[in-house]
C-alpha cells in the first residue's frame, strides 16, 4: 500500500530516518563511552526497542511498570524505571518483574526505599536502586548532594536493595556541580557509583560535556518533533514521525480545518506557538485544537489547500502522539512496510 | 473491592452522580420539548450511551465514524456524526453504517455534499445531512444564513441525500440571529427544517432560550470537570469523575508530585489555571505536568500530604481523560460496582 492510500489521521514513521536516528545517536554515545539506555515512552513499541538494543543500547528506560512489563514480554531483559514505585499492588508486580529481567529503579525518599526493601525481603532478589537527584527541574529528586549520600547509605543498608548510582533529568548544563559533588561525597564514603544516568533529547549532543554521566536516556531522538527542532537537537529532514491529515473544511479564505485535534496531536505546547508544523504549508499556523478538529490559519500562505487535500503535520510532542494511537505505520519511500501496534500505549500504571 | 484498593492512577465514576446527571438534564430537555442527543465523545462507553438512551435520549452524537461503529455494534440505532466525512475509505464505512442504523451527518461545503452523494448513489439508501453553521466559534460551518440555504438546496437536489436541518456548536447566546434567519430563509423557500441541533455542556441550561433549537448535543454533563464548574453549568458535588492518584514524592516542604501527568489528565488548560483540582487539598495547585508526573504546589495548604498518600483529582477536561484510559471504574458508596472498557477510545478515524 502507498502512503497516499492510508486513511487519515494516520501516524507514519519514515523507517529510513528512524534507523538513521537510532544509529547516529548510538554512534555518538559509543564514541564518548556513554551507555545508551533509550526511553521507550516515546514509541511504546517493542519492535523499536529491539531495534535500539540491536544497535547497541545496553537496555531501555520505562516510565511506568506497565510499559516495562510489555517490554519484558517482548524479550527486553535490562530495564530501568526511573520512578518512585509505591503501593502494594505495584510492588508485587515489581517483584515479579525483577525475577524476569535485570531491573533497576529510582527513589528519592526514605519512604520509597522502605517500600522497595519490604517488597524484596525474603525474595532472594537484589533490586538496584538509583538515587534521583533534582538538579534544577523542580520535579522529583533529592535536593542536595548531601541528601543523595544519605539516601544512598540507606539503600546500601537495606536488605534486598543495592545502590546503583545517581539519576537526573534533564541533563542541562547546570547539573554539573550537583552531580560532581554527589559523586565526590559518595566516593569519600567508599561507596562506588557505578551509574550516573542523565537524559533528555534536547541536550543529547552535549551528553559528553558531563564527565560524571555514564549512561544516557533519550526518547524523542528516534522520531523528532517541533520541540526537538526548536531545541536544535534535530533538523527537519531528520524528523521521522508525521501525522497525515485531511483538510475537511475551508469555511473562509484564510481558515482551514484538518481532521486532527487534541485527541490526535495532544494539547502540548511546550512553549511553542501553535500545535504543529504543516509540511506542505510551512507558513500556516495550527492556531487551535478541538478534540477532533485542528483550526489552521492559512493567511500567510500564497497557495492554500482545497477540501479533501491531505497535509502532513510534525507535532509539537511526539511522545504524546504515540500514546493516542493504537497503531502506527512504518513507511519506506512512500510504501507501507509495517504496521506496529503501540503495545505499551495507555499503560498508566 | 473498595475504592481504596484500586491501584493508581485510576479513573473512577460515582454511579449515583452519573445517574443523577443523566436524569436531570434529560428532565430539563423534556420539560422544554427539546430532543436529547448526547455526545458520547465524553465517555466513549456503550453502556453509558445505553443509559442515556434508556433515560430518554432520541439517539447519540459521535464525532468519529469509528466511535459510531462501536456504538452501533452495541445496539445504538440512531446516530448523528456532526462532521464532514471525506475520502473513499470513510465513505465506504459510512455507507455500511447507514445500512445498520438511522444515520445523519453534517456538511459545510459542496465538496463534502458531492462526496456523500456519490457514496450513496446506487445504494438505495437516503442519508440525512444537516448543514453545519458557524455561528461564532470559528471552526467549521457555513458563514452566513444565505450560504446555509444554498447548501441545503444542493442537498435536496442530490440523489441519495435528504436535508435534515441545521447544526451549530456551541449554543452560545450569539447563535440566535444566524439560526433564526437561516430557518426563516429556508421556510420561505418551502424547505422544512426538521432539526436544528445545538450543543455544548457550558450552555446546556440555556438551551430553551433558543426557540429554533429542536435537539441538543451535550457530552460533559454526565461527568463534569473543572471546565464545566467554571462555566457554572455544574456544581462540585455533581462531578462524577475523579482520578485517584498517589503522592510519589515530597521533595521540598511546598512541592509534591503525583503519579499522573499529561498522559493521565491531558495538557488541556481551557483557560484554567493549573491542571486539576485536588479534592483533599483544594488550595493546592497542579502547576505543571510531565508525561507521568504532576507537580503540585502545596504552599497555600496548612495540611500537606505524605509520600504514599492518595489524592483525588477533578481534571480540567473529562473528555480527554476518557481517551487516555482503557478502562474506568464505576463506584457506588465507595465500592467498585463495575469496570467499563472505554470501547471507543482511540477511534481516531
Describe the structure.
The structure is a homodimer of 349-residue chains. Chain A has 349 residues and is an alpha/beta fold. Chain A has two domains: 3-10 and 228-341, D-serine dehydratase-like domain (Lyase, Ornithine Decarboxylase, Chain A, domain 1, Beta Barrel); 15-223, TIM Barrel, CATH 3.20.20.10. Helices cover 28% and strands 24% of the residues of chain A. In chain A, strands 1, 10, 11, 12, 13, 14, 15, 16 and 17 form a nine-stranded mixed beta sheet that branches. Chain A has an eight-stranded parallel beta sheet with strand order 2-9-8-7-6-5-4-3. In chain A, strand 7 (161-167), helix 7 (175-188) and strand 8 (195-199) form a beta-alpha-beta unit. Chains A and B meet through helix 5, strand 10 and helix 9 of A and helix 5, strand 10 and helix 9 of B.
Keywords:
homodimer; TIM Barrel; 28% helix; alpha/beta
The quaternary state of the protein chains shown equals homodimer
Instruction: Give the amount of beta strand of chain A, in percent.
Output: 15-25%
The greatest interface between two protein chains, and residues involved on each side, is: A-B, 59 and 60 residues
Distance between the termini of chain A: 36 Å
Helix/strand order of chain A: EHEHEHEHEHEHEHEEHEEHEEEEHEE
Topology:
2 copies of one chain form a homodimer.
Chain A: E1 10-14, H1 15-31, E2 35-36, H2 46-55, E3 60-61, H3 65-73, E4 78-81, H4 88-98, E5 102-107, H5 110-120, E6 127-132, H6 145-157, E7 161-167, H7 175-188, E8 195-199, E9 215-217, H8 226-230, E10 241-249, E11 255-258, H9 262-265, E12 276-278, E13 285-289, E14 294-297, E15 310-315, H10 318-322, E16 327-332, E17 335-341
Parallel strand pairs in A: 1-16, 2-9, 3-4, 4-5, 5-6, 6-7, 7-8, 8-9
Antiparallel strand pairs in A: 1-10, 10-11, 10-15, 11-14, 12-15, 13-14, 16-17
Helix pairs in contact in A: 3-4, 4-5, 6-7
Amino acid at each position: 500500500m502507498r502512503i497516499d492510500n492510508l486513511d487519515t489521521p494516520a501516524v507514519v514513521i519514515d523507517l529510513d530516518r528512524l534507523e538513521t536516528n537510532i544509529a547516529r545517536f548510538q554512534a555518538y554515545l559509543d564514541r564518548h563511552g556513554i551507555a545508551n539506555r533509550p526511553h521507550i515512552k516515546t514509541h511504546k513499541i517493542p519492535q523499536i526497542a529491539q531495534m535500539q538494543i540491536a544497535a547497541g543500547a545496553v537496555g531501555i528506560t520505562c516510565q511506568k511498570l506497565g510499559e516495562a512489563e510489555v517490554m519484558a514480554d517482548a524479550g527486553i531483559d535490562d530495564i530501568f524505571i526511573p520512578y518512585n514505585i509505591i503501593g502494594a499492588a505495584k510492588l508485587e508486580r515489581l517483584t515479579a518483574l525483577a525475577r524476569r529481567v535485570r531491573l533497576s529503579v529510582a527513589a528519592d525518599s526514605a519512604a520509597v526505599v522502605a517500600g522497595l526493601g519490604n517488597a524484596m525481603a525474603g525474595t532472594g532478589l537484589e533490586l538496584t536502586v538509583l538515587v534521583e537527584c533534582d538538579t534544577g527541574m523542580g520535579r522529583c529528586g533529592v535536593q542536595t548532594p548531601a541528601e543523595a549520600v544519605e539516601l544512598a547509605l540507606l539503600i546500601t543498608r537495606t536488605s534486598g536493595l543495592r545502590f546503583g548510582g545517581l539519576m537526573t533529568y534533564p541533563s542541562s548544563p547546570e547539573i554539573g556541580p550537583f552531580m560532581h559533588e554527589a559523586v565526590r561525597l559518595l566516593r569519600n564514603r567508599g561507596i562506588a557509583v557505578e551509574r550516573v544516568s542523565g537524559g533528555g533529547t534536547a541536550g543529547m549532543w552535549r551528553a559528553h560535556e558531563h564527565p560524571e554521566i555514564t549512561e544516557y536516556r533519550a526518547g524523542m531522538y528516534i522520531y523528532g518533533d517541533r520541540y526537538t527542532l526548536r531545541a536544535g537537537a534535530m533538523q527537519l529532514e531528520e524528523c521521522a514521525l508525521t501525522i497525515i491529515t485531511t483538510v475537511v473544511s475551508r469555511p473562509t479564505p484564510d481558515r482551514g480545518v484538518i481532521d486532527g485535534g487534541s485527541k490526535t496531536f495532544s494539547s502540548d505546547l511546550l512553549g511553542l506557538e501553535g500545535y504543529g508544523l504543516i509540511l506542505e504549508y510551512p507558513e500556516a499556523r495550527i492556531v487551535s485544537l478541538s478534540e477532533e478538529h485542528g483550526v489552521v490559519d492559512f493567511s500567510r500562505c500564497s497557495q492554500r489547500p482545497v477540501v479533501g487535500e491531505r497535509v502532513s503535520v510534525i507535532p509539537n510532542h511526539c511522545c504524546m502522539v504515540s500514546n493516542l494511537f493504537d497503531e502506527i505505520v512504518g513507511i519506506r519511500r512512500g510504501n507501507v512496510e509495517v504496521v506496529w501496534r503501540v503495545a505499551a500505549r495507555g499503560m498508566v500504571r
